[in-house]
Amino acid sequence: MATSRPSITLRPARPDDLPDLLAIEAASFTGDRLSRRALRRWLRVPYGRCLVAERAGAIVAYGLASLHRAGRVARIYSLAVAPGARGSGLGGRLLAALESTARERGYAVARLEVSATNAPARALYRAAGYAERERLPGYYEGGGDGLRLEKRLDG
User: Fold this and answer.
1) Architecture, CATH, for domain 8-152
2) Tens digits of residue pLDDT in 11-61
3) Pair 49, 65: CB distance under 8 Å
4) Cβ atoms of residues 112 and 99 within 8 Å
5) What is the pLDDT of residues 55-83, one digit of tens each?
6) How many other β-carbons are positioned within 10 Å of the β-carbon of residue 3?
7) What are phi and psi of 150, to 5 degrees?
8) Domain ranges of the chain
């Protein structure tokens, strides 16, 4: 008999999700992590959009976008998936949901930065239609290069 995997629910993050967000952040990034203070602020500011993915009541991923000025560039600020949930399509679902929100609010472009050495994330963004616009030497803590990627949302 086949067993089914619990369904995934995407929802806006709440302040009580902070411990789970911090745990996923710590498991996902070795440097340039968002602090407790920064994540708490992102959950409160009107221009922040933080979504979480829940499976069986547990938060297994989150995505964060900065939506400052309608009609301009939406910034995908962070996307992180817990190690046990990687490769399941959650990153793509969260990314698409953040893009949809940006599009609904009138943004024409989504922009993000990714480590030049993060092959799985780069493949996800490429598959989602992002194109490299700029190499950012020494962008990350420890001197690692970043890549600035963009995607048109209006067509």
Assistant:
1) 3-Layer(aba) Sandwich (3.40)
2) 999 999 999 999 999 998 877 788 889 899 999 988 899 999 999 999 999
3) yes
4) no
5) 999 999 999 999 986 568 999 999 999 99
6) 4
7) -140, 155
8) 8-152
